[in-house]
């Protein structure tokens, strides 16, 4: 995406019939266009009701328009937002008129890109805009909101401040080469670098949480054939998502569905039943079950409470832990009052009794899933920061540079090489916040945004 100083326009609401459609304009010609299409220039930040006049002076629609003057706008430029009736024909006519007046169609994410380039937000905040739009749970929404408000930027500033402090000490000795760095100063310097290292490690530890929040917690439902896995999925989802039949082996491939459990977003995966003598297509399905179990964040092991405990494959037993696995004794409605279930879940894991038919025990199952989901996510202090893959890449680079700098400090290596490592760490931190100019990376990042944002 090329960087321009022209005026851009786009529809900011999805295409389709709705009550209201919103169009956005940003750039140096905004106020001139506002005056032309509305017959007046509205005062900044005041919603103004007016007729939208096309280039022939004809009324297209009655609209509500709001002007945001530079630098106090989303993009840092003069901006205009026009709310019209949500008829796609009207919205297209207004957009076509704006383009006819000299506006250029905005590219994906170009409004947010201009906000970044004009210093209205750092790069991590710009990325959080898309996380906020795509959030599917309270946790992902909270994490995106905190990063958008600068939480990650504040942590990065602390890390950069620590590196700059260490770098200032090292460069003082570079300027005075006849002075040797005394042992006590080397100790203090190493301590500063270790503090920065620890801060970077805390942020890196949230990468998995970021993946879980953006993609959903992969929760794989396992169990023998006819244990009621598909019925359980349907009850949790609240619709008949999976085919249910008394015939064993109905599920041959995995079925995936997204649900929200408490504040968490889960990707529920219903898998083929674990049949040790399966062949043909059913055997292939069980192979996919084992693959899904290997990649799972959480496991839900469903056992038929009326039948003896089945043989559980060794590959799955190795993945079962008390913090990531929930045992479900299904078909509890078929047990006689007071009777113990025939099946026994592996020792040490939490267990709930349910009936997928009557929904008995379903609230307890959801409560346990919520608890397990909360236990596999990491926070940084009280803040819910969730870095993405790009952040993790540059934090990893910074960690390597800091480790090399620390090794040189402890071995009395040349100050010039220590300084070079510290500057490289600074550059890596700068890539996260966007302090380093990397146009190719910016173009690729903002291309993933929706038009009008």
Spatial ordering of strands, largest sheet: 3-4-5-2-1-6
Q: What does the radius of gyration come to?
A: 29 Å
User: What does the main sheet amount to?
Assistant: 6 strands, mixed
Number of discrete helical segments: 15
The tally of domains stands at: 3
Give me the CATH architecture of the largest domain, please.
3-Layer(aba) Sandwich
Shape call: flat
Helix content: 40-55%
Separation of the first and last Cα atoms: 14 Å
The overall pLDDT, averaged over residues, is 87
Unreliable stretches (pLDDT < 50, length at least 5) are none
Topology:
Elements: E1 8-11, E2 20-26, H1 30-38, E3 48-53, E4 59-68, E5 79-85, H2 88-100, E6 104-105, H3 110-117, H4 123-134, H5 138-148, H6 151-175, H7 183-204, H8 207-215, E7 217-223, H9 229-237, E8 255-261, E9 264-270, H10 280-295, E10 298-304, H11 314-317, E11 325-330, E12 351-353, H12 362-375, H13 389-410, H14 415-433, H15 439-446
Helix pairs in contact: 4-5, 6-7, 6-14, 7-13, 13-14
Protein architecture, described:
The chain is of the alpha/beta class and 453 residues long. The protein has helices at residues 30-38, 88-100, 110-117, 123-134, 138-148, 151-175, 183-204, 207-215, 229-237, 280-295, 314-317, 362-375, 389-410, 415-433, 439-446; strands spanning 8-11, 20-26, 48-53, 59-68, 79-85, 104-105, 217-223, 255-261, 264-270, 298-304, 325-330, 351-353. The chain has three domains: 8-122, Probable tRNA modification gtpase trme, domain 1 (Gyrase A, domain 2, 2-Layer Sandwich); 126-206 and 384-434, tRNA modification GTPase MnmE domain 2 (Four Helix Bundle (Hemerythrin (Met), subunit A)), CATH 1.20.120.430; 218-375, P-loop containing nucleotide triphosphate hydrolases (Rossmann fold, 3-Layer(aba) Sandwich), CATH 3.40.50. 44% of the residues lie in helices and 16% in strands. The strands form two sheets. A six-stranded mixed sheet has the order 3-4-5-2-1-6, with helices on one face. It has a six-stranded mixed sheet with strand order 8-9-7-10-11-12, sandwiched between helices. The protein is flat, with a radius of gyration of 29 Å. 39% of the residues are buried. The model has no long low-confidence stretch (mean pLDDT 87).
């Amino acid at each position: 995406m090329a960087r321009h100083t022209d005026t851009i326009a786009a529809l900011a609401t999805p295409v389709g019939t709705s009550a209201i459609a919103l169009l956005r304009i940003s750039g140096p010609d905004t106020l001139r266009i506002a005056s032309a299409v509305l017959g007046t220039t509205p005062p900044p930040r005041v919603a103004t009701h007016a007729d939208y006049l096309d280039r022939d002076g004809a009324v297209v629609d009655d609209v509500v328009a709001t002007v945001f003057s530079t630098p106090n706008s989303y993009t840092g430029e003069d901006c205009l937002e026009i709310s019209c009736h949500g008829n796609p024909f009207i919205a297209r006519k207004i957009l076509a008129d704006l383009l006819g007046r000299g506006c250029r169609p905005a590219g994906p994410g170009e409004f947010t890109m201009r906000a970044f380039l004009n210093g209205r937000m750092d790069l991590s905040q710009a990325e959080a805009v898309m996380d906020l739009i795509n959030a599917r749970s309270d946790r992902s929404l909270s994490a995106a909101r905190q990063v958008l408000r600068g939480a990650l930027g504040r942590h990065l500033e602390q890390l950069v401040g620590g590196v700059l402090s260490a770098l200032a000490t090292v460069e003082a000795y570079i300027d005075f080469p006849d002075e040797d760095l005394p042992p006590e100063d080397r100790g203090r310097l190493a301590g500063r670098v270790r503090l920065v290292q620890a801060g970077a490690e805390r942020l890196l530890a949230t990468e998995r949480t970021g993946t879980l929040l953006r993609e959903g917690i992969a929760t794989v439902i396992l169990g023998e054939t006819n244990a009621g896995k598909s019925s359980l999925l349907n009850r949790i989802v609240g619709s008949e998502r999976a085919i249910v039949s008394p015939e064993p082996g109905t599920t041959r491939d995995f079925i995936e569905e997204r649900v929200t459990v408490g504040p968490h977003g889960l990707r529920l995966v219903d898998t083929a039943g674990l049949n040790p003598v399966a062949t043909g297509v059913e055997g292939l399905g069980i192979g996919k079950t084992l693959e899904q179990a290997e990649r799972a964040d959480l496991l839900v092991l469903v056992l038929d409470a009326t039948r003896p405990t089945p043989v559980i494959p060794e590959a799955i037993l190795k993945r079962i832990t008390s913090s990531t696995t929930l045992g479900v004794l299904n078909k509890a409605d078929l047990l006689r009052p007071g009777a113990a279930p025939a099946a026994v879940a592996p020792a040490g894991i939490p267990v709930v009794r349910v009936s997928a038919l009557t929904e008995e025990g379903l609230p307890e199952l959801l409560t346990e899933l919520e608890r397990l989901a909360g236990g596999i996510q990491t926070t940084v202090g009280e803040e819910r920061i969730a870095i993405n893959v790009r952040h993790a890449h540059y934090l990893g680079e910074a960690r390597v540079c800091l480790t090399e700098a620390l090794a040189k400090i402890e071995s009395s290596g040349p100050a010039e090489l220590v300084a070079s490592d510290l500057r490289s760490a600074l550059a890596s931190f700068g890539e996260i916040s966007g302090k380093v100019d990397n146009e190719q990376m910016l173009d690729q990042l903002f291309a993933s945004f929706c038009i009008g944002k």
